[in-house]
Amino acid sequence: QSVLTQPPSASETPGQRVTISCSGSSSNIGSNTVNWYQQLPGTAPKLLIHRNNQRPSGVPDRFSGSKSGTLASLAISGLQSEDEADYYCAAWDDSLNGYVFGTGTKVTVL
Amino acid sequence: EVQLLESGGGLVQPGGSLRLSCAASGFTFSSYALSWVRQAPGKGLEWVSSISVSGGTTYYADSVKGRFTISRDNSKNTLYLQMNSLRAEDTAIYYCAKGTVTAVYYGVDVWGQGTTVTVSS
Lengths: 110, 121
What we know:
The structure holds 2 protein chains of 2 kinds.
Chain A: E1 9-12, E2 18-23, E3 34-39, E4 46-49, E5 63-68, E6 71-76, E7 85-93, E8 98-101, E9 105-109
Parallel strand pairs in A: 1-9
Antiparallel strand pairs in A: 2-6, 3-4, 3-7, 5-6, 7-8, 7-9
Chain B: E1 3-7, E2 10-12, E3 18-25, E4 34-39, E5 45-51, E6 58-60, E7 68-73, E8 78-83, E9 92-99, E10 108-111, E11 115-119
Parallel strand pairs in B: 2-11
Antiparallel strand pairs in B: 1-3, 3-8, 4-5, 4-9, 5-6, 7-8, 9-10, 9-11
């Protein structure tokens, strides 16, 4: 059972903005950096955001991350059909002494 | 280009063992923490284990502690996962992943394509 909670699904029309939340606790999000991953159907996950809000080279600036206290968020603006995927947050947990993933959010472009 | 190539997956009976390997290239292998992450069919991502750059410190999820052993050979640029006492609930795609930096606490960035482990009689 994951310690990071995400909404199971999110949807929006092309061109709009969608935001995904990731709720944790003081032992994970509250004290460590958050990463976000995108997993397209049938493929391995890909790093989207690291250290809360940093985009790796090649990731469009439509994707942005933020963190406040024990809550992290991923925003996708200018939604495109190719953004349909599962999205996961993740952070190190000091109590579990391990890396924990969120429950995952399936984004659908209507 | 950073590449991670897993191998060693397959079908194994409950109680059996498997050893996964992950051959790395395109980066200074000995400078990064490494991890294994798995994904059961139709389920989300589950962290399995991580290892420090030297191999001297290892971390395990409670679900595999005492049954799985992570190790690395920096001379061969290869990561391993020895899996013993396998259970049906260990059935999953196992991904090898490179740490974002030296320390394990900052998570992973590049992932391999995965190798499938099926535990069934």
